[in-house]
Amino acid sequence: MSSSRREFFTMAGAVGLSGLLGGVAPFVRPASAAGSLKIGLLLPASGTYAPLGEAIRRGAELYVKERGGALAGRAVEFTALDDESAPPKAAELTNKLVYGEKVDVLVGTVHSGVAAAMVKIAREAGVTTLDPNAGADAITGGLCAPNIFRTSFSNGQIGEATGKAMIAAGIKEAVSCTWRYAAGDEMVAGFEKAFEAGGGKVVKKIALPFPDVEFQSALAEIASLKPQAVYSFFAGGGAAKFIKDFSAAGLSGSVQLWGPGFLTDGVEAAVGAAGDGVKTVLHYAEGLTNPEDAAFRKAFEAAYGVAPDVYAVQGYDAMHVLDIGLTAVGGDVAKKDAMHAAMAKAKFASPRGPFEFSANRNPKQTFYLRELKGGKNHLLGVAAEGLADAGKGCKA
Ligand code: PHB
Where are the beta strands (DSSP E) in the chain? Predict the structure, then answer.
């Protein structure tokens, strides 16, 4: 048997390729091949989440650059595809990276719907996968698997942290206003659970189709309801527009605007003074005093000429987790069980603070309360310390 046929049969047996590719039998390079390590990046490079994708890629590339372009002795080669934050395109693009490009490691993505479709394929293929943003609860819940890691947060987890912080701030009544898809729905569910457990009441849930930015009727409804606060998940270009429209509608003076930190991260300059006073909760903040953050911020600004945000940290940490796994197996990604076990045990000092996974491979982490003022997300305090997500349904 030729070596290429032997390699194919080895891989096909392991991952059930024929089912996924409808009987097409591609040549698959053995994962242990020496030489460069191929990392597939499935990230948005267009649409409202494009800046988030760019920050993640920059964070990941910076980590590797700081190590001379190699991890555990393997030169790193990135291959990126634009997922456009479009769930219907996710399966085809993931298959392209896993079976077309034959990447050793998959990193993606920003949008929960795209990520859930990606993870369904990745867990079947057994490819080492790191989610550097998307919060879909299922990824570290019902879809969890030993090869799936998340270096960001889960939607329910950050919703819960924000609900707790709003209760602690004395808020009793809120309206939620988000995009209607897994991220918005699950962040609101986590928020509502914690907020109502603390005695608060969600009086109205407003949801818009993703990625709509026509906020006028939602803002008119908020103005007529006059709640004490609005809890809002938008991100990227949509978040910048929501904050500006909220302020232009004259609501900033009478209604507190709160949300997960995605509402204000990366859009500080775009919103200017319209963002002053917006309070958010996130696993990152400006003004942290750990040395890893100081070094990270300096290196990121030197490399790209802009300050990093939470997305950059999540991309940087994805490479750190991978580095820990690769180092444990001397760079041999074929030793998946040992590599994944080492990754699951990863414990290190991230720019965000101490990083570790809970049993479902989602970060157990501290969430900070921040206030946007003068173009910076100022640290006000800790909203939830060492918070793990519920990881419902994760048995692997
Ligand atoms: C998500 O779809 O999970 C998502 C997108 C953008 C964010 C956060 C979460 O900023």
Answer: 37-43, 70-71, 74-82, 105-108, 128-131, 148-150, 173-179, 201-208, 229-233, 256-260, 279-282, 347-350, 353-357, 363-373, 376-387
